[in-house]
Automatic annotation (TrEMBL):
InterPro entries: Bact_OuterMem_StrucFunc (IPR050330), OMP/PagP_B-barrel (IPR011250), OMP_bac (IPR006664), OmpA-like (IPR006665), OmpA-like_sf (IPR036737), TSP_type-3_rpt (IPR028974). Pfam families: OmpA. It comes from the Bacteria. This is OmpA family protein. Residues 347-459 form the OmpA-like domain. Residues 1-27 form the signal peptide. It is a multi-pass membrane protein. Keywords: Cell outer membrane, Ion transport, Membrane, Porin, Signal, Transmembrane, Transmembrane beta strand, Transport. It comes from Sphingobacterium bovistauri. It is found in: Cell outer membrane.
Amino acid sequence: MNYSTIKKTAVAASLVAALGYADVAQAQTPTVFGGRSQYRTWSIGLQGGITTPNVLVGGTNNFGQKVGYFQNKVGEYYGLTVRKQFSHLFGLELEGNRGSIKTYNHELATPRAETANGAIAAKTDVNWAASLNGVFQLGTIDFLRRENAVNFYAKVGLGVLANNPVQYNNEDFNGTPVYNNEGKWGSEVFGDREPTGDRDNKLAAYVPVGVGVKFKLSEVVALNLGYTMNFTDDNLLYGPGRSDVKGKFSNVYGGLEFTLGSRDKENLTFANPVATLYDELKDPSLRNEVEALKQRVSSLEGTVDQLGKDSDGDGVSDKFDKCPNTPAGTVVDGSGCPIKFPEAPKQQATTGAYFAPIAFEFDSSVLKTESYSTLDKLAKELRDSNGSVTLDGYASAEGTEEYNNNLSKDRANAVKQYLVNAGVAASSINANGYGEANPIASNATEEGRVQNRRVEIKK
């Protein structure tokens, strides 16, 4: 093969790779419901048919100036295929064939037209032809049973053709050939010069482009009918002629394709995701399963609603609330019961209103929203009287003493900052932290520890 052959081979290879890569890459993840593992993806095929020295798209061959001069002599062509289906849209196929291509040019048979050899007919023996094809599924058809039974496809590939053209001076392809270089191929041929090699066949690159249709005969066997145009990079496909164009031919074939693998799995070639989804949605058993699932979800939602219901709004759901109907705004513990705070010292009764301690969550110095109303009242009183206040912060007994001292100081400062933001002068507020000191309840129980996490307000 010359430089032109190499260049065209590279272009064709790039085309096949570009078309195939997108589908193969997409098929790395499941593309059809459960993925390729639920399908049969390998198949082998046997095929046979005929060849003609022209193609549907027209054009010329070198053995004559116009396609119309060719008599469509029929040659035999047969072979096999091995295919891997990557998705319901794309597969890769290795195809091998052999046979012959025949042509007769009636213009050359007249006294007005001659060739150097006096040849009027040519028979090209294809010793073997091998190609790698990308196969694109164009669509499937189903019938009354909604079973995909007909599949349309197109293919394009790149291959190598080993052939030997033989020319005759009669249209019956018999007698002594006027041109036959069998056993001489292997070197470049220019014009009418004969090759000087020792091979029986010359090699040429070719690009097969075709369409076809498959009929599903059973879960294993399909009837395969198709038409392929083969474009070669060989201007001696039919031997020397009156023009220097690349040879081409077509073949029509029929054959059987056998899908490999377990019959329990569907053939991916005939898979149609849309039809499968439609069938599944019409399946009564599937609808029953969907309805049952809806009921289970509805029941689960009802259970969640019951678990989250909080009738008295104290932040504890009814299922775990041991003290239902707690008045709004009451500070409660984890079981929904009010927290009992110690009564105010009598000496404070003459200095103004008593303010309950400000409670905090475990290991937190963030004010609870329920404390805002108490602090707003305190801030108003301090603004009106220009009075002062002492804030004593405390912690429960969890953690180290040093940590709890800092935590209690942070709690007192959190209350101070709220009062300052409410318009109270910072100089009139004294914030202290005493850690675990002066507990008002036992630190041996959670209920007691809740009461000890506090800031006391002293005026």
